[in-house]
Amino acid sequence: MRMSQNKSQFVAVASIAAELSAVMEVAKEISLAAANAKAIAFRAGEKAKGFQPITDFINELAKETIELVNNINEHALKLYRLTVKEHRMSEACKRFEEVAAGACSAPYASSLSVPLQKAMQRRADCHRQFSRHVSELVAQLADVMHPARAARVIAANSRIEASQAGEYLQSLQAVAESVDNAAQIIHDKVHKCRSALSMINSVD
After folding, report:
1. pLDDT at 1 over 50
2. Cα–Cα distances in Å, from 107 out to 28, 64, 144?
3. 13, 163, 180, 188: which could join 155 in a potential S-S bond, CB 3.0 to 4.6 Å?
């Protein structure tokens, strides 16, 4: 059971790292879209006057998402390290138990109980820390959803403002679409991270 749990933790943590990497790339794309939108709005002048402040909002959302993902990555790295440590402690416990079983009639067999108890305690401590970081990660993933939802709203407003930009309509609408698509991707990736975390909890 413990080996299965460790394996599930390794798989889940690897999955989360991959999804977070994708979210980071999308956030960078949003930042680039904001820069492109700002340049287009500047060229359009009065025709895109309402679009200009939107570019600042888009850029702020990108920065907020990148910052949140960086913080989440730190927790994901801690989860990986704790998973490795817990796996090693599980292996140590298994070997101590095997040696203790084989030496049950030996004169000093009782001396194995202390190191075995210590190894089991360290394994339990690792798992408690892991569970705490999982809870913190769940909360942080919820935080990432806020800028993603805001991006959907901004994309809708961007389409409205773009419709008044004359010959710049198509270019600004493309920016709105890219922000909307990015928000959807972030939503999907965060959902996958949550699914990976629930996989850990189901084995817990």
Report:
1. no
2. 65, 63, 59
3. 180
CB-based contact 85:133 (threshold 8 Å): no
Helix (H, G, I), strand (E, B) or coil at 27: helix
pTM: 0.74
Sketch the domain layout of the chain as residue ranges: 2-203
Name the residue among 183, 185, 79, 187 with its Cα closest to residue 137: 79
8 A C-beta contact, residue 65 and residue 73: no
Gap between the Cα atoms of 105 and 99, Å rounded = 11
* DSSP helix, strand, coil percent of the chain (3-state; round to 5): 95, 0, 5
Residue carrying the six token digits 């049950």: 104
pLDDT per position as a tens digit, 70-98: 888 887 888 888 888 888 888 887 877 77
